[in-house]
Write a structure and sequence with these properties.
Butyryl-CoA Dehydrogenase, subunit A, domain 2; Butyryl-Coa Dehydrogenase, subunit A, domain 1; 3 domains; globular; alpha+beta; 4-stranded mixed sheet; 10 strands; 12 helices
């Protein structure tokens, strides 16, 4: 790694620290600080407005579109200081991190003027419509189609595992707009209003009773002709950009959520005596070591970005990192359940609707009919992480083909 934080980035760090100290609740940085459920609700209601007034929402965006025009290193410092303070940046992941930057890169000027201010102000919420029942890892096999009818696209098909679809105002989706083109070449990237006849959302209830994932059915749904991002039949390239934002953000801070969670697991092991088992200690140490590898790989990714490195091995770091962290987290949560022992099978969460803080993820709302603990909720969620954003199997193919130079995986005949 050849990475240095320039003086202007360190000056910016001091500015962020001062703002956080002035705007977070009194006592936030004191050991043992806590809030009542009512205080937490009030904090989260007011915090987004404070972030907006401070200019910290989408601060890396150009100034002409409402951001601060931060450099790469300034944006890194911003994420580091908020993570250090344990202060949330706005959690509109799909708008701020995925579709917003995609529109910035690929959108027309009219699209930028229409959507970016609303994303910045939190006036519209988003969900992502990529995966389908028969097109997950092989995304280019998608069957959802869009046909032009005058000044509108008419959309028919189905998406699945669509997070927060029941709350979203818009969905950015991939649809086949040229059925006669090769499968990667006939896809377009559309911005589709969710609140309309012709769109049905069906929640997929998970083992812990949550239902963030959904099936979404399109039956003659519509969106304006001009809501194609990046040009007609160029959706594959645009989508790869979006997935790059998903996999590449917060390079130097993404490991911190796993550190927080491991601290919780170690505390449980000390509490119930499992820490005295040398095998448990060895497994804990193994997971701690893997988290440090995540930290180092984050710096490698950032170094490659800053220096514009084109080496294939560096280019495949996104695939390697996704595979590594998701499998590490899955194994860590398996260890957590082993440490809890028989108590892992008992619902030990709160039987209230008060928000709880899930280390590394933020807030979660307990369910009276299935009150999982924070670690149990994280265990369930970890099962999905090796799948979404690119399955671990597909990431291995990418590393094998692009780094090791192995032949491509044979396709099934027919």
């Amino acid at each position: 790694m050849d990475l240095h934080y320039p003086p202007d980035a360190e000056e910016f760090r001091a500015e962020i620290r001062a703002w956080l100290e002035a705007n977070l609740p009194q006592g936030w940085f004191d050991e043992g600080f806590s809030m009542t459920p009512e205080e937490r609700r009030k904090f989260h209601e007011e915090w987004t407005q404070k972030l907006f007034d401070g200019g910290w929402i989408c601060a890396s965006w150009p100034k002409e579109y409402g951001g601060k025009g931060l450099s790469i290193m300034q944006n890194v410092v911003l994420n580091e200081e908020f993570a250090r303070a344990g202060a949330p940046l706005r959690a509109d992941f799909f708008g701020d991190t995925l579709v917003g930057p995609t529109i910035l890169q690929w959108g027309t000027e009219d699209q930028k003027k229409e959507f970016l201010p609303k994303i910045l102000a939190g006036q519209i919420s988003w969900c992502q419509g990529f995966s389908e029942p028969d097109a997950g890892s092989d995304l280019a096999s998608l069957k959802t189609r869009a046909e032009l009818d005058g000044d509108e696209w008419v959309i028919n098909g189905q998406k699945i595992w669509t997070t927060q679809a029941q709350y979203a105002d818009y969905i950015f989706l991939l649809a086949r707009t040229d059925p006669n083109a090769p499968k990667h070449a006939g896809i377009s990237y559309l911005l589709v209003p969710m609140k309309q006849e012709g769109i049905e959302v069906r929640p997929i209830v998970q083992p812990d009773g949550s239902a963030e994932f959904n099936e979404v059915f399109f039956t003659n749904a519509r969106c304006p002709k001009d809501n194609v991002v990046g040009g007609l039949n160029n959706g594959w390239k645009v989508a790869m950009t979006t997935l790059g934002f998903e996999r590449g953000s917060s390079a130097t801070t993404s490991h911190r959520r796993f550190e927080k969670e491991l601290d919780e697991i170690i505390a449980k092991a000390r509490e119930n005596g499992a820490i005295n088992d040398p095998t448990v200690r060895q497994r804990l140490m193994r997971q701690w070591s893997k988290i440090q590898i995540m930290r180092i790989n984050g710096y490698r990714t950032l170094t490659a970005t800053v220096h514009g490195t084109k080496d294939p091995a560096i280019a495949a770091l996104g695939a390697t990192n996704k595979m590594f962290w998701s499998e590490t987290h899955r194994d860590t949560m398996n260890l957590a359940m082993d440490i809890l022992g028989p108590y892992a099978q008992i619902l030990t969460g709160k039987v209230s609707d008060d928000d709880e803080y899930l280390p590394g993820y933020g807030r979660r709302r307990g369910r009276a009919d299935y009150p999982v603990s924070m670690l149990q909720a994280s265990f369930f969620f970890s099962r999905s992480e090796t799948i979404w954003g690119g399955t671990a199997e597909i990431q291995r193919n990418i590393v094998g083909e692009r780094v090791l130079g192995l032949p491509k995986e044979p396709r099934p005949e027919g």
